[in-house]
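Hi P.,

Sorry for the delay on this. The queue was packed all week, but I finally got your sequence through. Input first:
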Amino acid sequence: MLPVVAIVGRPNVGKSSFLNAALGRRVSIVHDKPGVTRDRVQADLAYGERAFTLVDMGGIGIVDDHALDDQVEMQINVALTASDVVIFIVDVRDGVTPLDEQIAGVLRRVGKPCVLVANKVDAEQHESLVHEFASLGLGDAIPVSAKQELGIWVTLDAAIARLPEAKPGERVAEEGETRIAFVGQRNSGKSTLLNALCGEDRVIVSDIPGTTRDSVDVSVEFGDRMFTAIDTAGIRKVRKLQDSIEYYSQIRAHESIGRADVVLHLIDATKDVSQVDKKIADAVATAVKPCVLAINKWDLAEHVETEKYLAYLSSRLPFWHFAPVVFVSAKEQTRLKEMMDVAFDLHDQGSHRIPTPEVNKVMEAAARVRGPRVSRGKYPKIYYATQVGTNPPWIVLFVNDPALFKDDFRRFLENRFRAAFPFEEIPIRISFRKRKSIFR
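Then the structure:
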Protein backbone atom coordinates (compact mmCIF):
# COMPACT_ATOMS: atom_id res chain seq x y z
CA MET A 1 0.00 0.00 0.00
CA LEU A 2 1.16 3.52 -0.71
CA PRO A 3 2.29 5.88 2.05
CA VAL A 4 -0.42 8.28 3.19
CA VAL A 5 -0.45 12.06 3.57
CA ALA A 6 -3.47 13.21 5.61
CA ILE A 7 -4.92 16.73 5.47
CA VAL A 8 -6.33 17.93 8.80
CA GLY A 9 -7.65 21.17 10.21
CA ARG A 10 -10.66 23.05 11.47
CA PRO A 11 -13.81 23.28 9.36
CA ASN A 12 -13.69 25.74 6.47
CA VAL A 13 -9.93 26.29 6.44
CA GLY A 14 -9.77 25.01 2.86
CA LYS A 15 -8.88 21.32 3.16
CA SER A 16 -11.09 20.27 0.26
CA SER A 17 -9.91 23.21 -1.84
CA PHE A 18 -6.31 22.18 -1.20
CA LEU A 19 -7.04 18.60 -2.24
CA ASN A 20 -8.82 19.74 -5.39
CA ALA A 21 -5.92 22.02 -6.28
CA ALA A 22 -3.46 19.18 -5.71
CA LEU A 23 -5.42 17.02 -8.15
CA GLY A 24 -4.81 19.53 -10.92
CA ARG A 25 -2.85 19.40 -14.12
CA ARG A 26 0.59 18.79 -12.56
CA VAL A 27 -0.49 15.65 -10.67
CA SER A 28 -1.28 12.34 -12.33
CA ILE A 29 -4.39 10.87 -10.69
CA VAL A 30 -3.94 7.14 -10.59
CA HIS A 31 -7.09 6.14 -8.72
CA ASP A 32 -9.93 8.05 -7.05
CA LYS A 33 -12.13 6.48 -4.43
CA PRO A 34 -14.58 7.56 -1.76
CA GLY A 35 -13.32 7.33 1.79
CA VAL A 36 -14.78 5.92 4.95
CA THR A 37 -17.16 8.76 5.75
CA ARG A 38 -19.47 10.86 3.62
CA ASP A 39 -17.04 13.79 3.52
CA ARG A 40 -13.70 12.04 3.52
CA VAL A 41 -12.08 11.76 0.08
CA GLN A 42 -8.75 10.30 -0.93
CA ALA A 43 -6.79 9.78 -4.12
CA ASP A 44 -3.67 7.83 -5.04
CA LEU A 45 -1.20 10.19 -6.71
CA ALA A 46 2.04 9.98 -8.63
CA TYR A 47 3.99 13.19 -7.98
CA GLY A 48 7.63 13.66 -8.80
CA GLU A 49 9.44 10.43 -8.06
CA ARG A 50 7.02 9.21 -5.40
CA ALA A 51 3.54 7.75 -5.26
CA PHE A 52 1.31 8.34 -2.22
CA THR A 53 -2.28 8.61 -1.07
CA LEU A 54 -3.58 12.11 -0.28
CA VAL A 55 -6.52 12.11 2.13
CA ASP A 56 -8.89 14.93 3.04
CA MET A 57 -9.98 14.18 6.61
CA GLY A 58 -12.57 16.97 6.57
CA GLY A 59 -15.95 16.98 8.18
CA ILE A 60 -15.70 14.03 10.54
CA GLY A 61 -18.15 15.12 13.19
CA ILE A 62 -16.64 18.49 14.11
CA VAL A 63 -19.29 20.43 16.01
CA ASP A 64 -17.62 22.94 18.34
CA ASP A 65 -14.98 25.18 16.78
CA HIS A 66 -13.68 26.25 20.21
CA ALA A 67 -13.07 22.98 22.01
CA LEU A 68 -11.14 19.82 21.27
CA ASP A 69 -14.11 17.59 21.98
CA ASP A 70 -14.22 13.84 21.43
CA GLN A 71 -15.32 14.20 17.82
CA VAL A 72 -12.42 16.52 16.95
CA GLU A 73 -10.02 14.27 18.80
CA MET A 74 -11.40 11.31 16.84
CA GLN A 75 -10.61 13.11 13.58
CA ILE A 76 -7.04 13.76 14.65
CA ASN A 77 -6.56 10.20 15.90
CA VAL A 78 -7.85 8.79 12.62
CA ALA A 79 -5.42 11.02 10.73
CA LEU A 80 -2.49 10.11 12.96
CA THR A 81 -3.24 6.39 12.88
CA ALA A 82 -3.79 6.29 9.15
CA SER A 83 -1.00 8.52 7.89
CA ASP A 84 2.75 8.78 7.45
CA VAL A 85 2.74 12.59 7.16
CA VAL A 86 0.14 15.17 8.22
CA ILE A 87 -0.59 18.43 6.41
CA PHE A 88 -2.11 20.74 9.05
CA ILE A 89 -4.04 23.58 7.42
CA VAL A 90 -4.93 26.82 9.19
CA ASP A 91 -6.74 29.94 7.93
CA VAL A 92 -4.42 32.95 7.74
CA ARG A 93 -7.37 35.34 7.97
CA ASP A 94 -8.54 33.90 11.30
CA GLY A 95 -5.15 33.95 12.94
CA VAL A 96 -4.24 31.36 15.56
CA THR A 97 -7.44 30.03 17.15
CA PRO A 98 -7.76 28.00 20.38
CA LEU A 99 -8.70 24.93 18.35
CA ASP A 100 -5.63 25.37 16.15
CA GLU A 101 -3.50 25.42 19.30
CA GLN A 102 -5.13 22.28 20.67
CA ILE A 103 -4.72 20.37 17.42
CA ALA A 104 -1.09 21.49 17.21
CA GLY A 105 -0.54 20.30 20.76
CA VAL A 106 -1.72 16.81 19.83
CA LEU A 107 0.52 16.79 16.76
CA ARG A 108 3.55 17.87 18.81
CA ARG A 109 2.97 15.22 21.46
CA VAL A 110 2.60 12.42 18.96
CA GLY A 111 5.57 13.53 16.89
CA LYS A 112 4.06 12.64 13.52
CA PRO A 113 5.90 14.39 10.66
CA CYS A 114 3.91 17.51 9.93
CA VAL A 115 3.73 20.26 7.30
CA LEU A 116 2.04 23.46 8.52
CA VAL A 117 0.09 25.32 5.85
CA ALA A 118 -1.39 28.82 6.18
CA ASN A 119 -4.15 28.83 3.59
CA LYS A 120 -6.16 31.67 2.05
CA VAL A 121 -3.13 33.88 1.44
CA ASP A 122 -5.11 35.26 -1.48
CA ALA A 123 -3.72 38.81 -1.40
CA GLU A 124 -0.37 40.44 -0.69
CA GLN A 125 -1.53 41.89 2.63
CA HIS A 126 -2.13 38.36 3.94
CA GLU A 127 1.53 37.36 3.61
CA SER A 128 2.57 39.34 6.67
CA LEU A 129 0.14 37.31 8.80
CA VAL A 130 1.76 33.94 8.12
CA HIS A 131 4.61 34.32 10.63
CA GLU A 132 2.31 34.30 13.67
CA PHE A 133 1.57 30.58 13.17
CA ALA A 134 5.15 29.81 14.22
CA SER A 135 3.75 30.00 17.76
CA LEU A 136 2.10 26.61 17.14
CA GLY A 137 5.52 24.98 17.51
CA LEU A 138 5.37 23.11 14.20
CA GLY A 139 7.89 25.17 12.28
CA ASP A 140 7.28 27.91 9.77
CA ALA A 141 3.98 27.83 7.92
CA ILE A 142 3.98 27.56 4.14
CA PRO A 143 1.85 30.35 2.62
CA VAL A 144 -0.76 28.86 0.31
CA SER A 145 -3.70 30.03 -1.72
CA ALA A 146 -5.64 26.92 -2.64
CA LYS A 147 -8.11 29.14 -4.46
CA GLN A 148 -5.36 30.44 -6.76
CA GLU A 149 -3.38 27.16 -6.68
CA LEU A 150 -0.34 28.89 -5.17
CA GLY A 151 2.00 27.07 -2.82
CA ILE A 152 0.44 23.66 -3.50
CA TRP A 153 3.53 22.13 -5.05
CA VAL A 154 5.84 23.55 -2.37
CA THR A 155 3.60 21.85 0.20
CA LEU A 156 3.61 18.52 -1.61
CA ASP A 157 7.39 18.65 -1.96
CA ALA A 158 7.67 19.28 1.80
CA ALA A 159 5.34 16.37 2.54
CA ILE A 160 7.26 14.01 0.25
CA ALA A 161 10.53 15.02 1.94
CA ARG A 162 9.03 13.80 5.26
CA LEU A 163 7.76 10.46 3.93
CA PRO A 164 9.57 7.28 4.96
CA GLU A 165 12.05 5.91 2.48
CA ALA A 166 10.35 4.38 -0.55
CA LYS A 167 9.96 0.63 -0.32
CA PRO A 168 10.97 -1.62 -3.21
CA GLY A 169 8.07 -1.93 -5.62
CA GLU A 170 6.17 1.08 -4.22
CA ARG A 171 3.43 1.46 -6.78
CA VAL A 172 -0.26 1.39 -7.52
CA ALA A 173 -1.52 -2.07 -8.37
CA GLU A 174 -1.08 -3.01 -12.02
CA GLU A 175 -4.10 -2.78 -14.29
CA GLY A 176 -5.91 -6.11 -14.32
CA GLU A 177 -4.39 -7.34 -11.05
CA THR A 178 -7.21 -8.52 -8.81
CA ARG A 179 -7.46 -6.64 -5.52
CA ILE A 180 -8.76 -8.84 -2.70
CA ALA A 181 -9.60 -7.23 0.65
CA PHE A 182 -9.24 -9.34 3.79
CA VAL A 183 -11.75 -7.94 6.28
CA GLY A 184 -13.19 -9.09 9.57
CA GLN A 185 -13.28 -8.22 13.22
CA ARG A 186 -10.17 -8.34 15.34
CA ASN A 187 -8.60 -11.78 15.87
CA SER A 188 -10.61 -13.39 13.10
CA GLY A 189 -7.35 -14.62 11.58
CA LYS A 190 -6.65 -12.15 8.77
CA SER A 191 -2.88 -11.92 9.36
CA THR A 192 -2.53 -15.65 9.83
CA LEU A 193 -4.39 -16.25 6.60
CA LEU A 194 -2.30 -13.75 4.67
CA ASN A 195 0.92 -15.23 6.05
CA ALA A 196 -0.27 -18.67 4.99
CA LEU A 197 -0.96 -17.43 1.46
CA CYS A 198 2.49 -15.81 1.36
CA GLY A 199 4.35 -18.87 2.64
CA GLU A 200 7.46 -20.43 1.18
CA ASP A 201 5.48 -21.90 -1.72
CA ARG A 202 4.23 -18.43 -2.64
CA VAL A 203 6.24 -15.51 -4.05
CA ILE A 204 5.84 -12.16 -2.33
CA VAL A 205 6.48 -9.55 -4.98
CA SER A 206 6.25 -6.49 -2.74
CA ASP A 207 5.45 -5.58 0.84
CA ILE A 208 4.41 -1.94 1.09
CA PRO A 209 3.33 -0.05 4.25
CA GLY A 210 -0.28 0.97 4.08
CA THR A 211 -2.64 3.62 5.33
CA THR A 212 -2.24 2.44 8.92
CA ARG A 213 0.81 1.32 10.85
CA ASP A 214 -0.57 -2.21 10.94
CA SER A 215 -2.00 -2.55 7.44
CA VAL A 216 -0.18 -3.67 4.33
CA ASP A 217 -0.84 -4.39 0.69
CA VAL A 218 0.99 -7.49 -0.44
CA SER A 219 1.31 -8.54 -4.07
CA VAL A 220 1.19 -12.32 -4.18
CA GLU A 221 1.74 -14.84 -6.93
CA PHE A 222 -0.77 -17.61 -6.31
CA GLY A 223 -0.53 -20.45 -8.78
CA ASP A 224 -0.67 -18.83 -12.20
CA ARG A 225 -2.42 -15.68 -10.97
CA MET A 226 -1.23 -12.49 -9.35
CA PHE A 227 -3.36 -10.62 -6.83
CA THR A 228 -3.02 -7.74 -4.40
CA ALA A 229 -4.00 -8.72 -0.87
CA ILE A 230 -5.38 -5.77 1.06
CA ASP A 231 -4.92 -6.62 4.73
CA THR A 232 -6.67 -4.80 7.59
CA ALA A 233 -4.91 -6.50 10.46
CA GLY A 234 -4.11 -5.10 13.86
CA ILE A 235 -7.11 -3.00 14.92
CA ARG A 236 -6.04 -1.28 18.12
CA LYS A 237 -7.75 0.51 20.95
CA VAL A 238 -7.23 4.25 21.02
CA ARG A 239 -7.33 6.06 24.33
CA LYS A 240 -10.29 8.30 25.10
CA LEU A 241 -12.36 6.99 22.18
CA GLN A 242 -15.41 4.99 23.15
CA ASP A 243 -16.10 1.90 21.03
CA SER A 244 -12.81 2.53 19.26
CA ILE A 245 -12.29 -1.10 18.24
CA GLU A 246 -15.58 -1.15 16.36
CA TYR A 247 -14.94 2.34 14.98
CA TYR A 248 -11.53 1.48 13.58
CA SER A 249 -12.75 -1.85 12.23
CA GLN A 250 -15.30 0.07 10.20
CA ILE A 251 -12.75 2.69 9.09
CA ARG A 252 -10.28 0.12 7.83
CA ALA A 253 -12.89 -2.21 6.40
CA HIS A 254 -14.42 0.64 4.39
CA GLU A 255 -11.01 1.68 3.07
CA SER A 256 -10.21 -1.87 2.01
CA ILE A 257 -13.65 -2.56 0.57
CA GLY A 258 -13.60 0.61 -1.49
CA ARG A 259 -10.39 -0.40 -3.27
CA ALA A 260 -11.15 -4.09 -3.66
CA ASP A 261 -12.45 -6.13 -6.58
CA VAL A 262 -13.40 -8.99 -4.26
CA VAL A 263 -13.81 -9.10 -0.48
CA LEU A 264 -12.83 -12.04 1.72
CA HIS A 265 -14.87 -11.61 4.89
CA LEU A 266 -13.31 -13.74 7.62
CA ILE A 267 -15.68 -14.89 10.35
CA ASP A 268 -14.46 -16.71 13.45
CA ALA A 269 -16.22 -20.07 13.60
CA THR A 270 -15.64 -20.31 17.35
CA LYS A 271 -17.66 -17.17 18.07
CA ASP A 272 -21.10 -15.81 17.29
CA VAL A 273 -21.49 -13.64 14.22
CA SER A 274 -21.05 -10.21 15.79
CA GLN A 275 -22.51 -6.79 15.15
CA VAL A 276 -19.14 -5.80 13.69
CA ASP A 277 -19.40 -8.73 11.27
CA LYS A 278 -22.90 -7.63 10.29
CA LYS A 279 -21.80 -4.03 9.73
CA ILE A 280 -18.83 -5.12 7.63
CA ALA A 281 -21.10 -7.35 5.56
CA ASP A 282 -23.53 -4.47 5.14
CA ALA A 283 -20.68 -2.22 3.98
CA VAL A 284 -19.66 -4.81 1.38
CA ALA A 285 -23.26 -5.02 0.16
CA THR A 286 -23.57 -1.23 -0.01
CA ALA A 287 -20.38 -1.07 -2.08
CA VAL A 288 -21.78 -3.81 -4.38
CA LYS A 289 -18.63 -5.91 -4.05
CA PRO A 290 -18.43 -9.70 -4.57
CA CYS A 291 -17.82 -11.42 -1.25
CA VAL A 292 -16.50 -14.77 -0.06
CA LEU A 293 -17.66 -15.63 3.44
CA ALA A 294 -14.59 -17.44 4.78
CA ILE A 295 -15.44 -19.24 8.01
CA ASN A 296 -12.05 -19.44 9.71
CA LYS A 297 -10.90 -21.67 12.58
CA TRP A 298 -13.30 -24.37 11.45
CA ASP A 299 -10.88 -26.93 12.87
CA LEU A 300 -11.68 -25.54 16.34
CA ALA A 301 -15.46 -25.53 15.92
CA GLU A 302 -16.14 -28.82 17.63
CA HIS A 303 -19.52 -30.54 17.38
CA VAL A 304 -20.78 -27.99 14.85
CA GLU A 305 -22.59 -29.42 11.83
CA THR A 306 -21.94 -27.67 8.53
CA GLU A 307 -25.60 -27.49 7.49
CA LYS A 308 -26.69 -26.09 10.84
CA TYR A 309 -23.96 -23.46 10.73
CA LEU A 310 -24.97 -22.46 7.19
CA ALA A 311 -28.55 -22.01 8.36
CA TYR A 312 -27.33 -19.92 11.31
CA LEU A 313 -25.13 -17.82 9.02
CA SER A 314 -28.03 -17.23 6.65
CA SER A 315 -30.18 -16.01 9.53
CA ARG A 316 -27.50 -13.55 10.64
CA LEU A 317 -26.54 -12.29 7.18
CA PRO A 318 -29.70 -12.82 5.11
CA PHE A 319 -28.76 -10.26 2.46
CA TRP A 320 -25.74 -12.41 1.51
CA HIS A 321 -27.77 -15.53 0.76
CA PHE A 322 -26.10 -15.86 -2.66
CA ALA A 323 -22.50 -15.42 -1.45
CA PRO A 324 -20.26 -18.52 -1.48
CA VAL A 325 -19.20 -19.88 1.90
CA VAL A 326 -15.89 -21.67 2.41
CA PHE A 327 -14.85 -23.33 5.68
CA VAL A 328 -11.12 -22.88 6.24
CA SER A 329 -8.35 -23.00 8.79
CA ALA A 330 -5.66 -20.39 8.26
CA LYS A 331 -3.52 -21.95 10.97
CA GLU A 332 -3.71 -25.45 9.51
CA GLN A 333 -3.76 -24.06 5.95
CA THR A 334 -6.75 -26.16 4.94
CA ARG A 335 -9.01 -25.34 1.96
CA LEU A 336 -7.11 -22.13 1.22
CA LYS A 337 -6.73 -22.99 -2.46
CA GLU A 338 -10.46 -23.57 -2.72
CA MET A 339 -11.10 -20.21 -1.05
CA MET A 340 -8.81 -18.36 -3.46
CA ASP A 341 -10.24 -20.17 -6.48
CA VAL A 342 -13.69 -19.01 -5.39
CA ALA A 343 -12.43 -15.43 -5.00
CA PHE A 344 -10.90 -15.42 -8.48
CA ASP A 345 -14.09 -16.94 -9.88
CA LEU A 346 -16.17 -14.14 -8.37
CA HIS A 347 -13.98 -11.58 -10.10
CA ASP A 348 -14.37 -13.46 -13.37
CA GLN A 349 -18.16 -13.58 -12.90
CA GLY A 350 -18.25 -9.82 -12.53
CA SER A 351 -16.30 -9.36 -15.76
CA HIS A 352 -19.03 -10.82 -17.99
CA ARG A 353 -20.95 -8.51 -20.31
CA ILE A 354 -24.39 -9.63 -21.49
CA PRO A 355 -25.74 -8.53 -24.90
CA THR A 356 -28.66 -6.12 -24.68
CA PRO A 357 -31.16 -8.45 -26.41
CA GLU A 358 -30.50 -11.14 -23.80
CA VAL A 359 -30.87 -8.65 -20.95
CA ASN A 360 -34.22 -7.51 -22.34
CA LYS A 361 -35.43 -11.08 -22.87
CA VAL A 362 -34.85 -11.90 -19.20
CA MET A 363 -36.28 -8.56 -18.06
CA GLU A 364 -39.48 -9.03 -20.08
CA ALA A 365 -39.94 -12.57 -18.79
CA ALA A 366 -39.46 -11.37 -15.23
CA ALA A 367 -41.98 -8.55 -15.71
CA ARG A 368 -44.57 -11.06 -16.94
CA VAL A 369 -44.11 -13.09 -13.76
CA ARG A 370 -44.17 -10.12 -11.44
CA GLY A 371 -44.47 -6.66 -12.84
CA PRO A 372 -43.92 -3.49 -10.80
CA ARG A 373 -46.97 -2.44 -8.79
CA VAL A 374 -49.13 0.54 -9.67
CA SER A 375 -48.23 3.40 -7.35
CA ARG A 376 -50.50 6.34 -6.54
CA GLY A 377 -52.58 5.62 -9.61
CA LYS A 378 -49.55 5.72 -11.90
CA TYR A 379 -48.56 2.77 -14.04
CA PRO A 380 -44.85 1.94 -14.14
CA LYS A 381 -43.52 1.19 -17.60
CA ILE A 382 -40.19 -0.30 -18.68
CA TYR A 383 -38.98 0.54 -22.20
CA TYR A 384 -35.76 -1.44 -22.32
CA ALA A 385 -32.74 -2.54 -20.27
CA THR A 386 -29.02 -2.74 -20.99
CA GLN A 387 -25.82 -3.58 -19.15
CA VAL A 388 -23.63 -0.49 -18.83
CA GLY A 389 -20.80 -1.75 -16.64
CA THR A 390 -18.87 -4.67 -15.20
CA ASN A 391 -17.28 -5.46 -11.83
CA PRO A 392 -19.91 -5.18 -10.57
CA PRO A 393 -22.38 -5.92 -13.35
CA TRP A 394 -24.51 -2.79 -13.77
CA ILE A 395 -27.85 -3.01 -15.52
CA VAL A 396 -29.88 0.10 -16.29
CA LEU A 397 -33.62 0.00 -16.99
CA PHE A 398 -35.06 2.94 -18.88
CA VAL A 399 -38.53 3.67 -17.50
CA ASN A 400 -41.26 6.29 -17.47
CA ASP A 401 -40.74 7.27 -13.81
CA PRO A 402 -37.94 5.81 -11.61
CA ALA A 403 -39.89 6.72 -8.45
CA LEU A 404 -42.51 4.09 -9.31
CA PHE A 405 -40.03 1.21 -9.03
CA LYS A 406 -39.56 0.05 -5.45
CA ASP A 407 -36.76 -1.89 -3.77
CA ASP A 408 -38.73 -5.15 -3.70
CA PHE A 409 -38.99 -5.11 -7.51
CA ARG A 410 -35.29 -4.24 -7.76
CA ARG A 411 -34.42 -7.26 -5.59
CA PHE A 412 -36.74 -9.47 -7.66
CA LEU A 413 -35.03 -8.41 -10.87
CA GLU A 414 -31.59 -8.87 -9.35
CA ASN A 415 -32.42 -12.47 -8.42
CA ARG A 416 -33.81 -13.15 -11.92
CA PHE A 417 -30.73 -11.70 -13.60
CA ARG A 418 -28.49 -13.65 -11.25
CA ALA A 419 -30.25 -16.90 -12.11
CA ALA A 420 -30.19 -16.26 -15.86
CA PHE A 421 -26.65 -14.97 -16.30
CA PRO A 422 -23.22 -16.03 -14.99
CA PHE A 423 -23.68 -13.77 -11.94
CA GLU A 424 -24.81 -16.56 -9.59
CA GLU A 425 -22.73 -15.56 -6.59
CA ILE A 426 -22.17 -11.82 -6.98
CA PRO A 427 -24.23 -8.67 -6.38
CA ILE A 428 -25.71 -6.81 -9.33
CA ARG A 429 -26.23 -3.05 -9.47
CA ILE A 430 -29.62 -2.14 -10.93
CA SER A 431 -30.60 1.43 -11.75
CA PHE A 432 -33.78 2.99 -13.14
CA ARG A 433 -33.50 5.96 -15.46
CA LYS A 434 -36.28 8.11 -16.85
CA ARG A 435 -36.94 7.98 -20.58
CA LYS A 436 -39.97 8.95 -22.60
CA SER A 437 -41.47 6.32 -24.86
CA ILE A 438 -40.63 6.81 -28.53
CA PHE A 439 -44.28 6.01 -29.28
CA ARG A 440 -45.65 8.96 -27.32
